[in-house]
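Quick one, tokens below. Sequence please?
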């Protein structure tokens, strides 16, 4: 299975030692080239690298959709993705910002820049969030094998539409956007579910995707909460079986007894 590295280790359990044939999450350097020029190198799970590259380019504003892309080639080793765009004289950004994302995340985006607040009329209930987070755990195929990987998903509240796994939590969001472009799934008005910490970079990607609700099983950073409040993005952390914490834009959370379908602005 791509993304999984077989490994022998010794398990200590109940005062006994025993050898185990197991596996761990695969991590590798992957380079993204655009029109023959290296743009970025970062750590990721080496699988479906074309989704990751396309989503990263879309999140950075280098492309606006598949119509901008002429060809995508993943090297046989999987360590290089060559993306050829229809615009041959494109000037690529050069100022890289190292982020708090695991796996050595980078971005060219200045998060201090202004983004228009998301005013989509989306509502969701706590029960929907609990149910979809449970679905996220069930969909985490690599996690069940290695227990060392992040999973994210886009949902309409009733079901998971797209799922992505990677050693870097920020990479999972890029992968989701790449999958959405390839499958022609609009991201505006959807819910982003994640297993990892909600960072400022993830909030920036959510804002660009038009995603008004971001929920995680763990915490949010202070900057991501500040951005959520400034951009009117609902930030939810520590989603458990019967509890959650709303850090920003709580007006989207309904307390109805029965879950209602997520509604998007017309």
């Amino acid at each position: 299975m791509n993304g999984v590295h077989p490994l022998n280790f010794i398990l200590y359990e109940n005062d006994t030692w025993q050898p185990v044939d197991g596996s761990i999450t695969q991590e590798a350097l992957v380079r993204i080239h655009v029109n023959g020029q290296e743009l970025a190198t970062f750590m990721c799970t080496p699988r479906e690298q074309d989704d990751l590259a396309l989503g990263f380019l879309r999140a950075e504003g280098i492309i606006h959709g598949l119509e901008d892309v002429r060809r995508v080639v993943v090297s046989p080793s999987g360590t290089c993705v060559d993306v050829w765009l229809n615009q041959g004289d494109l000037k690529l950004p050069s100022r890289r910002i190292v982020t708090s994302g695991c796996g050595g995340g980078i971005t060219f985006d200045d998060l201090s820049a202004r983004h228009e607040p998301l005013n989509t009329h989306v509502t969701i209930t706590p029960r929907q969030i609990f149910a979809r987070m449970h679905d996220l755990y069930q969909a985490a195929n690599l996690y069940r094998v290695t227990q060392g990987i992040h999973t994210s998903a886009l949902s309409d509240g009733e079901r998971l539409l797209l799922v992505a796994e990677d050693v870097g939590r920020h990479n999972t969001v890029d992968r989701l956007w790449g999958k959405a472009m390839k499958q022609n799934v609009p991201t505006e008005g959807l819910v982003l579910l994640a297993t990892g910490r909600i960072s400022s970079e993830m909030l920036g990607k959510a804002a660009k995707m038009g995603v008004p609700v971001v929920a995680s099983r763990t915490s949010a950073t202070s900057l991501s909460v500040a951005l959520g409040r400034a951009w009117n993005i609902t930030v939810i952390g520590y989603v458990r079986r019967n509890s959650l914490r709303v850090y920003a834009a709580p007006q989207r959370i309904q307390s109805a007894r029965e879950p209602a379908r997520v509604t998007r602005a017309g």
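The longest helix spans residues 169-183. DSSP finds six helices and 14 strands in the chain.
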